[in-house]
Design brief:
single chain; mainly alpha; two-stranded antiparallel ribbon
Length: 502
């Protein structure tokens, strides 16, 4: 059984290894968009695991149940040796019970992750799914949203390219036409944009972005300046609260009736009274309030709260739709580059003929096959040298350059060279020069094509002997001339001089 301190140590080790793995993943070079997306998804998985380890460590350090404190006390108490032997006995019992149990160290798992990072398999190359239209995160696929947009009754019928340009112009649509069907459309559009953004940018925190968007939206909504939903303050106040009417100028309800239904309704709304009924009933109800405080009026004259509740519900529904639009505006800003590329791609594909489209699809299939062949290990049973393209050179070229013949050099530590060209070149390279220096022999032209240590040392001895013979010796090489013009050596001249013959 794993102790709490061992769990704590394991959590710390795992966090450090995860941080190192994430750093190595970020330092890895990404040549294409596919590689960057796959790398971000691997980092996101490592980050989620790092958060789990952090939560586990936090629970252990908080020690709400007090078990960690008891374990530390048992290890540091007066009977620490007894605790040590008790744990040792538990470990031996466990291994005796499971003798063939194999435990892989954590390092082995991260070595596998590094191997997958350097040489990914087919399963690792596609950690996330994209449709053919999306081009593995390069383009948007808004065809389904486009069909839902066309099904709205109040929208103009446009083509797909125009829709890609104007999809974020929701403020241009009439706000009085934005009903439940329109809400379902923008919800579907927002769900797709969020899903696509999370697939191409898994490390982006959309929740934090939406919190900022929501705060900005609340401020603009309260001030009535949010685009597409600007409020007319004066008309809204008249529509909701009505216009007050001075009753001191009227002596009977018949005079009030001359104002008409709409004016009486507005005055009743301003007082919070019922505004229904015929013209005479409205005039009588309004005239009954003349000179009386509101507390003395009959409660049956007041309007119910259902109308206000309905108005509040409608306002809340409009606010929810506007909040969804604010999120869509932000998502389109994040995916602006992909939307531009999508529009250009659609225009390019629409301008091509059917034959060109088939040829393009055929080229893509061939490129995929070529890339698969390039990633595979080349077939090389004869162990031929690899050329500039990463493939073995032809066998005829291999024999033409004499690469099938190997030359060994004892001075270079029995290193083998393929082909005569490489063998001749190695005499002026560092390895052969280092071997000659170790033998205290200069690497001169006299030792060309000499590969044996014995031959090199014997040749060096012969060269030294010849140099000794060619050395200047005064007693032999110095010459003198007598009075008769005879030229003799120095030794002969001195001998004749001592004998008095000169």
């Amino acid at each position: 059984m794993e102790t709490l301190l061992e769990q704590q140590r394991r959590y710390h080790e795992e966090r450090e290894r995860l941080e190192d793995a994430m750093a190595q993943e970020k330092l890895l070079k990404k040549a294409a968009v596919r590689d960057k997306i796959n790398s971000d998804h691997r980092v996101q998985q490592l980050l989620a695991r790092h958060e789990e380890c952090t939560d586990g460590l936090l629970d252990l350090y908080e020690d709400k149940d007090g078990l960690r404190k008891k374990e530390i006390a048992a290890l540091s108490g007066p009977n620490e040796l007894g605790e040590f032997y008790t744990r040792l006995r538990h470990i031996r019992d466990w291994h005796r019970k499971y003798p063939n149990e194999i435990q892989e160290p954590m390092q082995y798992e991260f070595i596998k992750l590094a191997q997958v990072r350097e040489n990914p398999t087919d399963e690792d190359l596609a950690p996330v799914f994209f449709t053919d239209e999306e081009g593995y995160g390069r383009f948007l696929d808004l065809h389904e949203c486009f069909q839902k947009f066309l099904n709205l009754k109040f929208t103009e019928k446009v083509d797909y390219v125009t829709y890609l340009t104007t999809a974020d112009r929701l403020h241009e649509l009439p706000k009085d036409k934005k009903n439940a069907e329109y809400r379902r459309y923008i919800e579907h559009l927002m769900d797709y944009l969020m899903d696509f953004c999370q697939r191409i940018q898994p490390l982006k925190d959309l929740t934090a972005d939406f919190d900022l968007v929501e705060a900005e939206f609340e401020e603009k909504w309260e001030s009535g300046t949010f685009q597409g939903w600007k409020k007319d303050a004066e008309s809204a106040m008249v529509r909701q609260s009505g216009a007050h009417l001075d009753l001191s100028a009227f002596s009977s309800h018949e005079e009030l009736a001359s104002l008409g239904l709409d004016r009486l309704k507005s005055a009743l709304q301003a007082l919070g009274l019922k505004c229904g009924g015929t013209l005479e009933q409205r005039a009588q109800r309004l005239f009954a309030t003349k000179g009386k405080p509101m507390e003395e009026l009959d409660h049956t004259m007041f309007a119910s709260k259902s109308a206000g509740a309905a108005s509040s519900t409608g306002s809340r529904r409009q606010r929810d739709i506007a909040a969804l639009e604010a999120r869509i505006y932000h998502l389109f800003d994040v995916l602006d580059e992909q939307r531009k590329d999508t529009r250009e791609n659609v225009e390019r594909r629409q301008a091509r003929t059917a034959e060109e489209l088939e040829e393009e699809e055929h080229d893509e299939v061939e490129n995929d096959d070529d890339s698969d062949d390039d990633d595979a290990v080349p077939y090389n049973p004869k162990n031929l040298p690899v050329g500039w393209d990463g493939k073995p050179i032809p066998y005829w070229l291999y024999k033409l350059h004499g690469l099938n013949i190997s030359y060994s050099c004892e001075i270079c530590g029995n290193f083998k060279y393929r082909g005569p060209k490489s063998f001749q070149r190695h005499f002026s390279e560092w390895r052969h020069a280092h071997g000659m220096r170790c033998l205290n022999i200069p690497n001169t032209a006299h030792f060309a094509n000499v590969t044996s240590i014995k031959d090199a040392t014997s040749l060096w001895d012969q060269l030294k002997e010849s140099k000794e013979k060619e050395k200047w010796r005064p007693d032999v090489d110095e010459e003198f001339e007598d009075s008769a013009g005879n030229v003799v050596t120095k030794k002969t001249f001195e001998d004749l001089q001592r004998q008095g013959l000169l």
